[in-house]
Amino acid sequence: MVQRLAAVAALLLVPSMAFAQATPAAGSVTIVESADSTENPPYINIAECSGATADTLTYYWQVSSFLGGGTYELWIADQPPTSTTTSDAGRCPAQSSSTLTVNSEQIASVSATAASQSRKDTTTVAQRLAQINVACDAGITQVYLCVNYTPTGGAQVMNAASGTVTLDFKVPPTPVNVVLGAGDSVLHVSWDAGTEGTGTTEGYRVRWGLTGTLTGSHDLTGSGTTEYDIGGLQNDTAYDVQVLALSPGKNESTPSATVTERPIFVNDFWRLYRQEGGQEQGGCAAGAGGLLALLALVPLAWRRHRRRS
Q: How many angstroms separate the CA atoms of 228 and 175, rounded?
């Protein structure tokens, strides 16, 4: 009963914990991606920038100057806000203007109902970046978010909260020297890190499938993790395997060379014991079936040993 109550309590805490993780400190904006909510802070990768992945963002902000009521304006720009004065409108603009030296776009204008608020963007990441003229091969590494706050009956506070989103448009090096080791219903994959690439390797993706297909996939975290066991395979069946490197933003490298191997049946001591009628499930249980089967294995194992020698 106590365990059940604890489990229920844990489930009830999940929404509040998730909100606490997304709520920023005063004066800041944090961002959560619809497709990569575990990234903190998030990365915008090549697929998201190009529109191949229709990802969207949710923005959370908190201001320290909240006076009760008013309006929030949320902006995105290709340059960081550097001032809280209205004369620096291009950094966290109060309005659009063709004379701005900073490429910026207003995401939303909402009622300031509380010091901490959020806004889910209905525009995709690709469309937002296009609005501020950010290309998917751009040299910049971040885009910037800022909030202007206009209290009811008061003067506008520029850049009352700000934050950043990291851009990752580089491809990591392709893994090399992929080797497969055959086991019982398993293939052991090992490889070396590549050196030909512009991006940083943050992890790897192993893909496998029957010859001509790659339906299985598993991601590994860490650039030093260069081996993986693919389990649950059919013995004496050919499988293709590829390895790709992943950048921090999950950009894929070009695939490694495809390597093919077949898992093999291994007739180990335990299988021989079961074939001889052994009934033991583990441990040291007594019983004629288990004891006789073990004794019967002795001459069998000896004969097999003599044949090999």
A: 14
